[in-house]
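new request in #modeling-help
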Amino acid sequence: MLDFAAACDGLASQPFSRLLGARLTEFGDGAATLELDIRVGLQQQNGYLHGGVLAYAADNALTFAAGTALGPALLTAGFTIDYLRPAVGAVLRARAVVVQAGRSRATCRCEVYTLDEGREPLMCAAAQGSARRRA
Amino acid sequence: MLDFAAACDGLASQPFSRLLGARLTEFGDGAATLELDIRVGLQQQNGYLHGGVLAYAADNALTFAAGTALGPALLTAGFTIDYLRPAVGAVLRARAVVVQAGRSRATCRCEVYTLDEGREPLMCAAAQGSARRRA
Amino acid sequence: MLDFAAACDGLASQPFSRLLGARLTEFGDGAATLELDIRVGLQQQNGYLHGGVLAYAADNALTFAAGTALGPALLTAGFTIDYLRPAVGAVLRARAVVVQAGRSRATCRCEVYTLDEGREPLMCAAAQGSARRRA
Amino acid sequence: MLDFAAACDGLASQPFSRLLGARLTEFGDGAATLELDIRVGLQQQNGYLHGGVLAYAADNALTFAAGTALGPALLTAGFTIDYLRPAVGAVLRARAVVVQAGRSRATCRCEVYTLDEGREPLMCAAAQGSARRRA
């Protein structure tokens, strides 16, 4: 099984996660939280965070949450994301939890929030997906 | 309605799409194709393209395909992606088509391929999603 | 808005829900629970509840949960379901909650359980979907 | 591998499919088509076919299509369905095709149509899902 430090190393070994500036802030007990600082380079044409960034965060948080149950050798099978509102703020936070895990597959849910000073976190997307242990 | 040049301008106005190096190669008649050159910065830890890049490409191709039916003022409602095989190669291509479009909503499908010299395109993900006209 | 009695009448006015023997056991405050007694006629070839019954229960629970926020004139836009384990037992229970509701759309999640005497409820499926107010 | 007759027997061995009156009209070469006659008992409160019936048809067509690639010992992992228009007519037809199949998993798409005399089939739902070979 992975511990928090090893999971952080795992994230840091993903060039795309470094490009986006993602960091793990929670890993273990069936849950994982990934955060990144919102910046102009991650936006779409209206100044909102691009949906692709939300999808990245959900995909990766789901996969790390699955990793708390299945270990590091994983394949993400797929996921669904519903966008709930435009994403603006200082920080994007994706928290995923394991809904059910067997020996070879884990199904997880993820809630994606934007954080900003002086207000409560706002949920901007909800996702559900699963990952399988690599054969 | 949007023409190809206007759609390319739309894509170019998305900072995140510029960060990823995405380009439109088809837009119109209920279909849109988006491509990007695969590079190390878009990979995960095993040298495959990160799932988040595939999700970005599917999300954006689905939205542009919906834009051929609904015009440029769109909100992506959400989508589902199934990962089919590890994505390696020179170019990622996401082609989306409108399955059904009403006045306010379009449902689209997307196939994501990797291209490389000397071989046929390989499908690495399949997605389905919908977008709505912005009120 | 709908109250519990009106929601039960709504369910009873669906011939397919009568065919399956579904009943509402909770409706309000952003949540709805639908139950049905498991019987041979709802099974697949191995004696498990057919996936289509789980899908029906998730679809309808999601829609009723959305109805607590949007009122009775709804269209279900679609949903995703992940099957977690074979469904056996005496009763199927699908509980859905609203994740986010705007004026015209509500996104909901649903957990589907089987119940049997002498054991804890077992989650057999997890779903996520959305419904829109009918124009 | 299954042939058409064996697949029809498989469908007939599902009590729920008999309750709904489903029949296979195509099975093989990566595709499966399932049909059922629309009747009042399958409707919701407005005289449309219940979404749960469309979901059943998509789930089962996806699974049978996967069975053309993986054989009869299957578990449906899950699926997504987008409802496109109210379903009315004489016959419901769900046709699924394999998008990609490996040794242990097949991902499929399904289009659901209503048929009626004197008009073209109308697509009322689009689905995507996957099934795995049972261990």
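bot summary: Chain A has a mean pLDDT of 96.
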